[in-house]
Hints:
Blueprint: E1 11-15, E2 18-19, E3 25-26, E4 29-34, E5 37-43, H1 48-63, H2 78-88, H3 96-110, H4 120-130, H5 132-151, H6 176-188, E6 190-193, E7 196-201, H7 204-216, H8 220-224, E8 226-227, E9 236-239, E10 244-246, E11 262-263, H9 266-277, E12 285-286, E13 289-290, H10 295-305, H11 313-324, H12 329-336, H13 340-347, H14 356-363, H15 368-371, H16 375-392
Amino acid sequence: MPRQRVTKGPRLWLQPERRHKNGSIERAVYVVLDDGIKRSTGCGPDRRGEAEEALARYIAEKRLKDRPRDRSASEVMMADVLAIYASDVAPNHARPHETGARIGELLKWWGDKRLSDVTRSTCQQYAAHRGNSSARRELEDMRAAITYHRREGLCREVVEVTLPRKAEARRNWLTRSEVAKLLWTAWRYKEVQQGAATRRYRRRHVARFILIALYTGTRPGAVCRSSFDSALDNFGWIDIERRLFYRRPVAATETNKRRPPVPLPDRLMAHLRRWERMGMIHPVDFNGEPVREVKIAFRRNAQDAKVKATPHTLRHTAATWLMQAGTDPWEAAGYLGMSLETLLQTYGHHHPDYMAGAKRNLSHRKDTEKMGGTKREHAESNVTKIAHYGGKR
């Protein structure tokens, strides 16, 4: 009996540059290979991320025509699971292009496998292949895709995804002197032409970004998408009169990354009033136009200031400073737009009252003779109490 040919499924291939007989040159381009058929993505070698998004769209278009229900895991291709997630869920994410790129990475490894192939050992192999940090985030997407697929009634089995361990926590917040260096460097930087500094200040939008992000703990994207004009529905509104920053634009739907209104502190208000009087519509603007993101300019500024930081570091810094100042956790969580659980798990150890009761109780010494019993008996009693309270946590 002839052996059935097994296809590899849709995949990306970088077609090299080609010279035709008429002398014309066809540049290198990513193409989608699928069962002997090539489809150009139009993306060159420097646009791998966009090519992966094109691959995800192709798979979605091809496989979403039919959705058989109530199948076993051995009947389901992982490419189908990821395609459904890319079509139904990913477009609603805050950064769908990043989700698409991660799905593209998952497809390289899992695309020709079946859902039943998802085991602890294969997840560990994937983590070894990609590295723990990247693999964990991508496998979180895969877990969400598998869960969505099952809840849609397309598979009757529960398939578990094993995630690699989280990386060890590191200091990801800035001191006040480091923030001052970033601000001073951004404010004073002048454009350089032909080796000489001009009179044009080219990073003051970065300085304004730093002030807003730090004093409100707002995510970078929401800071860039802010405006003094309430009529701009696609931008968050800074209400100077009521001293409130409505971080979520009217036209935007709420996501898991919450953007509740935040009151504006006095130090920031002085800057905001001055910028509005200067005629600015967007506080983070460059040549009068709103800046979509400050990632590149911020990185260069941080390098010049010799400070290790990214735009998101400012949000970590705001959360850390709030905890270090002894702010009520519930109030701080609301101010930052994050859950109380996330705040306590990530930043709670910075609070001056962190485990204060345990610290006080363990350092409080009592005379064991007055309490009765031997020192050994009393020590055993204390250990029992500590274990008892630990079990309630």
